[in-house]
Records
---
Amino acid sequence: MKKISLTLIGLYLLFLHGFSQVSEHYTSIFQAKPLKLEEINLVTSYYSQTGSHSAVTGGGTSILGGKILNGSEQLTDFANMLELKLVGYDETGVKHTILAGIGVDHHTAASQKWISSTGASSPEGNRVYPSLNWTREDEKKGTEFGLGTYYSNEYNYTSFALDGHYGFKNKTGGEFSGKVSAYFDQVKLIYPSELIPATATTSVNPYDINVITTNASRGSVTNPQTGTIEYPTSHNIPTSPRHTYTGSLTYSQVINKSTQFSLLLDVVKQDGWLGLPFHRVFFTNGTEAIENLPHSRLKIPVGARFNYFIGDDLIVRTYYRFYTDDWGLVSHTASIEFPYKFTPFFSISPFYRFYTQTATKYFAPLGKHLATETFYTSNYSSAAFNSNYFGLGLRTAPPGGISNTYLSALELRYGHYAQSTDLNSNVISLHFTFK
């Protein structure tokens, strides 16, 4: 994907160079400016989490064959994202922007090792996610159009996405934008080791003999049919598709020099395997299965933003979102942030967000599902809970750069998250902007 992205940028540079060869008649109207690197953004963050309701172990600490499966949700994630922003103008004065990015994450998860009932599965994983976006903006007409493509890959999940957006501004300070996105994902059918079928069955679709001979551990396994030791790799584990389609509408309005607001509407449709096969469910009768969820879901979030400038130094940013879907989940999100400038080049931003949701129709805690139910999950992301997220951001952007370097801005941000299910997390991030 990185090679493809660089090729596209190269072709685009040649395309704009062709514009620079137009006749003097056109160049006298507007001098075309080929793409040049305008900005580099580097974001690095560290996330840590604790909790006790792992979906891998059935929503908590469980007992399987006399062995205790620890329900710890302890997790760490180290993420890095690099983005290049290139800007150029064609001979008509239309602005072209290309954003090319690459991200790399590394995580460790205590629950992941219990995909194998022996606790031998790898607790670590990596994710790589490149992206490429192009936007064409006519600043005179106030219109813009853009396309984007994204890719993400990790051991058990692969995703490819495309999107397109269009926006225009009116003469009264309003701006309308619409965006459509499509995600095409493949979920690897990694089963808890004790639930890997011993013989071929049509209950797994698509089915492959490798389901029998693999477990979540990346070490050796014994083929139950032949008794031989085999060494599975990620590419020989069967996959099942998941598709997500999103339509978004946004309207923003400047009321006066102190007040702005935005209205947001999304419609999200998902189809395919919407759970994860290594999430266990334990029933009231003592039996066990992997979570089973409907193969479609419709989500509708509606939101609003309201920003108010108090003088030159303080901004009040507020946000509210209402969400509902056909699985029975209803949620409310409300947040507020107060960016304050101590000097023209240094600001501090305390923030707070409250969230509450109801449970889906298919959730029940560890050991509470009936074996007669059609759909079931003990993943606490589908449970009823409240959460609080608060923290602080610091930003400096002196003229001429920090210490007279190409580093034009530096932002440090910290947040603490607390959920009523006993899940807690902390995240700290650094954002470097080079110009």
Note: The mean pLDDT is 87.
---
Amino acid sequence: MNLPRPSALILVASATLSAQSSVPALDPAGLTQILKSGTWAVIEFGGPTCVPCKKMQPILAELQQQFGARAQVRNFYVTEHPKEAKDHRVMVMPTQVIFDPSGKEVDRHMGFWPKAEFLAALAKVGLK
């Protein structure tokens, strides 16, 4: 039986952690700035300790990499900024909101969003 070498396991774990941490979290000023930037924005309203939010991080990182400069994919921690979360009608963590380049909300999903369904929703609103 061939077992992976410990260094290979560390590499896999490191890659997973870096993908999870590559989607920055915004503060309220950063959220406002992105919504006025003239680009698509995909914002996950969640929290750093929320289990479904943690499970979304690799998907969000992949979306950020896939869309590059066409869309900004970011986290917004409702536990740190409850007023702004309320302003955006967030009632469940995580809630993913898609904003068009004018800053208008065009779609919303609550809970874990599988990547294939997420991509289909993005294509439906015009982000391909």
Note: Residues 24-124 form a domain with the Glutaredoxin fold (CATH 3.40.30.10).
---
Amino acid sequence: MYNPSVSGGNASTVAGSRLFLYEVQGLRQNAETDQMNNPIRKSGSVFITVPYARMNQEMQRITRMGGKIVSIRPIEEVGAASNAEPTPIAAPVVVPAEAVAPAETAPTQTNSKPMTQAAPKPGASVPVNLYKPNSPYVGKVLSNEPLVQEGGSGIVQHIKFDLSGGNLHYVEGQSIGIIPDGTDDKGKPHKLRLYSIASTRHGDDMDDKTVSLCVRQLEYKHPESGETVYGTCSTFLCGIEPGADVKITGPVGKEMLLPDDPDATVIMLATGTGIAPFRAYLWRMFKEAERKANPDYQFKGLAWLIFGVPYTPNILYKEELEQMEKEYAENFKLTYAISREQQNAEGGRMYIQHRVAEHADELWDLMQKPNTHTYMCGLKGMEDGIDEGMTVAAKKNNVDWIEFRKQMKKEHRWHVETY
């Protein structure tokens, strides 16, 4: 169902008059930016009753004051637990802690688990440009392994670099720059190319000393001569030997960061090597070693990867993806669009946009949740098709998809990195 507060509309329905109880910790009052009459506690939990129509605004205010939302519960659930009659409130107010029943006494309802806020836009704590083009980090190649199985098309490699000699660190969803050896046709050093990082912040070896990339060798026909042209940097990387030195810059990027919320819904739309940042997300969510290394981040939400490739042998990281799907069936959904082997409803090739269209109603419902993040990475050509599929679902709810998508972008819940 369409949620007006998500798309910025006014709540004029029955749902719009509902109240929710925010449990907040760590609030601090800023006299200059928050001229509020609400009392603020310096420690412990604060309970704030918020009308449905003001949920997003209140989330932003709490974040601005340094608060962390621990839980959000419908006020009627709290009332049921405390035998108190909820009172309609027109503006956010603080509820005394003693008036609220402890969370463990609330009635168990399968369809009413606490909601959580979408993560605020990343701030200064995210590492950026630790190494710049004029003074790159020089790391050694530790391994260079093929990812395309026999019968697949093209060359795609998983390349791991040693970071132990410097201070290059990163978080999931960022990119690094690679400066290939040699010079261009004008005799100048090659410019850097950016690649999405395919490993978690701990690296493939879980020692915080490596970074990995998923690189496809660019190959195309010259439009005039008809000659086969190979990408400079991708060819350099795909053919590089372990032990070789590589100039690395970065990290860069805040657009594709994974939210810290372990209850979030994370929708991932990928083609080809666009799987790179999603590999990092999924490893962080579901790999046993990662879960042990990150006790504060134990993913309990839903992750859904829709992955487009030409052939089954081109499903990058296939074995590990399917193992995670098997082990975490309630939390991870894996959907393939294999264009040269599967057919869409019209009998043509099955591309990622067709899978999105098939599941558009389910995706739409998920996107109504305030802690759902949608990520798109890969070929730019998939964007229009995905918009078309989601437009149909939005129209069923009398919503303009493009405007809804723009609102998700403003709320930092729509993330795109295409090329």
Note: The domain at 137-252 is CATH 2.40.30.10 (Elongation Factor Tu (Ef-tu); domain 3).
---
Amino acid sequence: MSAARFDDWDLPSSGGAAAPALAAQTTASAASPAPGTAGASLAAVNAADKRIVNGKTDINQLAPFKYPWAWEFFLKANRNHWTPLEIGMAQDVHDYSHKLSDAERHVFSNVLAYLTTSDIMAMRNIGLAVMEKMSAPELQIYQARQVYEEALHTWTYQHCIESIGLDQQEIYNRYRVVPEIHGKIRLASERLNRVLRSDIDLTNRDNLHEFALSYFFFAVIFEGCWFYNGFTPIFALQRRGLMKGTAEQLQYIMRDEVLHCAFGIRVVRELLKEENLTLDPAALRTLWDEAEAAETAYAGYILREPILGYNADLHVQQFRFIANRRARQVGVEEPFPGVEGALPWLDEQANLRKEKNFFETRVTEYQTGGALAWD
């Protein structure tokens, strides 16, 4: 099997056609055998008949693959196994109490307050709303790993909150009582709950479009823009040598989230092509406008006082820049044409490939075509 690429989001989709060897299998319909019939059998599965949704093949039969790239995502994710306990938090405890300004503590605690709720939402959405509707098992298996990773991320935020000694009840309630945090959570809930029910009929074209739009919101905006942009205030502190333990935790999380986003974008592209479906431009425009308004309000709250090297305007500009990147990767119109990146340091800051003291931290990076190496 050829290795799947994870840096090719801007390239046209290769489509979902099965490889010739897969298509060579034959398919026959078979009625269910009568109860107690000896030697009863079912028809062989033709992998070419698999689909993203509404597939007619056996969901329990993993291979041959129609979507080998999904299996590669699963293998890639399993090479990045970590837990929050492996990263030291002692410096963060000292920094939070003795080095951060009041404005920086406000930013730090509210970013954690938002992320704790968001990752639980992501876990529930994949596990309850999306995974069961995917009718190819290779897609479901990666999403099962994704559910685990969202739970791991939630543990990570909790570990940071606990290590620093923040008031857990107060932090976890902020998404309910702070309007600007609640606005993002409410918008996500409204968009994702539309397809949460298990009885939605995806053979109906209107329902299928609603599902595709909801999954676009989840993969492209919720994970691809809000999460990606959401870690940035902590990375801004890390650049100044502050809260380095939390920032390293978020670097591991971001590495997971980049895979989540890349997988989701690939699924959206394949689904639209497979179903001959076009996302309604007006509906997309509404999605982007709602997301931008929620992100702008959130940035205005967490950065009501600018911190050194970072402010609300930079945060919103970077959201727009990332939104354009995600739109290009899916193959839809850029929502904010002409916006330039506000944080040229972000991609490097978010990347774990950098020199580290072996005696201070665990050092890992993705290796092309191989397992993680330990430097």
Note: Residues 244-274 form the longest helix (31 residues).
